[in-house]
Amino acid sequence: MPAARSGTAKRYAEAVFEIAKTYNSFDRWSEELRAIVRVQADPDVTTLLSAPSVSFETKELFIFQALPDLSVEAKNLVKILLRRGRFSLAPQIADHFDRLLNDYRGIAVAEVTSAIPLTPEELSAVERRLSALTGRQVLVETNVDQSIIGGIVARIGDQLIDASVRGRLMSLKKRLASA
Asked: If you average pLDDT over every residue of the chain, what do you get?
């Protein structure tokens, strides 16, 4: 995504977050943003919204029929996005909102990659260890990549923790090459 679009989505998310904070409506906003993203991802919706021959009112009516339970505030967001031709930013807005909400709640999201799927016990141990390292509650999203051979690689924001066999072998290779 281009930086300008990312910055725009971030500004929308920050505005939504401030509204949610004011009314303590974080969960409602999170659900509504995800519902908007689901509708936006529909190829038929994309086709309709990109058709210049379809009026703004028709596009708005179509979206609101697809999302009948939206709050007044969320409907206003949809109207603004539609009028400014930025409805396609919905996924990025929702992602930025989730990051802001996690930060506000003291939650860190870790992307953990392992060579084989982690058992529930291993996953729990990884969450506890990463929580102890960060001082925050950690939610783990898992991936499997056999190329790391063994161990795990965890990414929390900009921080990378490489406890993989591949990482250790690469470190040993560098030390041997410089010796």
From this structure: 93
